[in-house]
Each structure stands twice: as C-alpha cells, then as structure tokens.
Amino acid sequence: MDHPVLLTWGLMPEPVGAYRGPGSTSGLEGFRFGPARAVRAPFRIEIGNWGWGWAAAPPDAELAALLRAGDPAAPDGRGLFGRRLRQMVGDRVGRQFALQFEMEQSADPANRVTLDHRHPDRLGNPRPVLHYDLSDHVKAGMAAAKAVSDQIFGLLGAEDHSSYRPGPGAPGWFEYRGRPYTYRGAGHGAGTHIMGSRPADSVVDSWQRCWDHPTCTPWAAAACPPSVPPIRRSPWPRSPCAAPRGSTAN
C-alpha cells in the first residue's frame, strides 16, 4: 500500500519563488475529514515548492523547449537565445506551481504480494509477484481532488497545465467516469504480511509477534496494510504500531 498521489500543475500569474526552500512548506488538511469520506477517499494537499520537477519535467526541459520552439505564447518556429532566453526561462520557471493530492487508501485484500514458485531466482527462492490497483473509492477521491484543484487554480488565476495521457511513462494512468487521470506513488510503501488474530490467516499478532517465532517482532510498516488509517472497519485488529484514527502515518 502507499499514498496514491494525483499531481496538478500550472503557471501562476506572477513569480512565486519556485525551487527555493524545502520541497513543501505548507498544506491543506481539511479534505481528510468529514462525511464525504463515505463516498470518496479523503486526501491532504501538499503545496509544492519545486515547480514542475515531479509533475512534468525539471527546468532544463523548459530551457530545451524554448531553445527549440521559442516563446510558447507566440510560437514562430524560432528558438530563443541570449538575454531573451534568460528572461523567458526565469519567468516561466519562477511561475511554476504544483499541488500534490495524497490519497488515503484503505486495506484491500486484492493488493498483495504473493510468491511464484514456478519462476525461482538463482538461489532457488520463489520470486515475489506484486498485485496493486485502486478501488473505485480511491478513484472517486482523485476525481474530487481534481475538482478541488480546478477551483484553487481558478481562485489563484493560475494557468492549468495538468495533463494525463496513457503511455509507457504513465503506468498509473486510468479513466474514471469518462475522464483521464494518472496516479503516482508517494514512496511510503507499507504491507506485505498480515496482522491478525490467528496464525491460519495472518503472519503476526496484534503485538507484532510472529506466529511461527513468538520472540521475533518485525517492527516495520509491512504489518500495517494501509499507510493511513482506513475509514471502514478493518478485518485486522489495531496494533500499537497503528497511527491514531484520523491522522496520517508517514
């Protein structure tokens, strides 16, 4: 499990100091709470400081485009050079703005890691097989997140450049209710062994003790199926490693 992330990006009307300071200095947390959680996945919004570096491309891609095609507002097929190029790069990169919508993903038995004994590695160990997808609940959350982004961009007067196209570089692309989206992983992986109340269908108990070796306690995110608390009742008991309900575990 992870935080599936929907990115939106655009150009602000004026420079905002992109690429200065840490990756993020603020966020919006209000969409993590409330009755809407029943119909769509809740999310938090991280306000990114590093332009389009993750969302689209680093600044050198902007430079290459201006060298190749010139001013995107008045393209004439001729690239920019010298002072005009420096001014245009500074203007466009300085106005880059991105939002990161980090979705809450509930525990789902369909998202799992299994072993394939038919294809062992060179040491004879079965290779892991990863099964991962988004539920409609999470996809509905991403649709709501994009709607929120549209409103924020409108209030800011930002020019939306968000684009979601299928292809080898977009393994997280999907369509939901006729609209395209692309999700990415936040890198907060969790889950690979189940926490439960009996050894028949779990690996550790609620105190993280292995059923096969009670003195072995693998303290890690692997026993926490969702990377943030689920909104529905989980089939696994809560554990000391679980975050308080309503908070985000990072």
Could you explain the architecture of this structure?
With 250 residues, this protein is α+β, with helices and mostly antiparallel strands. The protein folds into two domains: 4-185, no CATH class; 190-239, no CATH class. It is 18% helix and 22% strand. The protein has helices spanning 59-69, 82-94, 136-156, and strands spanning 4-11, 24-28, 43-48, 96-103, 112-120, 126-131, 159-160, 173-176, 179-185. Strands 1, 2, 3, 4, 7, 8 and 9 form a seven-stranded antiparallel sheet that branches. A two-stranded antiparallel sheet has the order 5-6. A hairpin with a 5-residue loop joins strand 5 and strand 6. Helix 1 (59-69) packs across helix 2. It is elongated, with a radius of gyration of 22 Å.
Descriptive keywords:
250 residues, alpha+beta, 2 domains, two-stranded antiparallel ribbon, disordered C terminus
Describe the structure concisely.
This protein has 250 residues and is of the alpha+beta class.
**N- to C-terminal separation?**
12 Å
Characterize the largest beta sheet: strand count, sense, and whether it forms a barrel.
7 strands, antiparallel
What's the shape? Answer: elongated
Beta content comes to 15-25%
The total of beta strands comes to 9
Multimerization state? single chain
Instruction: Give the count of structural domains.
Output: 2
**Broad structural category:** alpha+beta
Task: Provide the gyration radius in Å.
Answer: 22 Å
| Uncertain ranges | 228-250
Order of helices and strands: EEEHHEEEHEEE
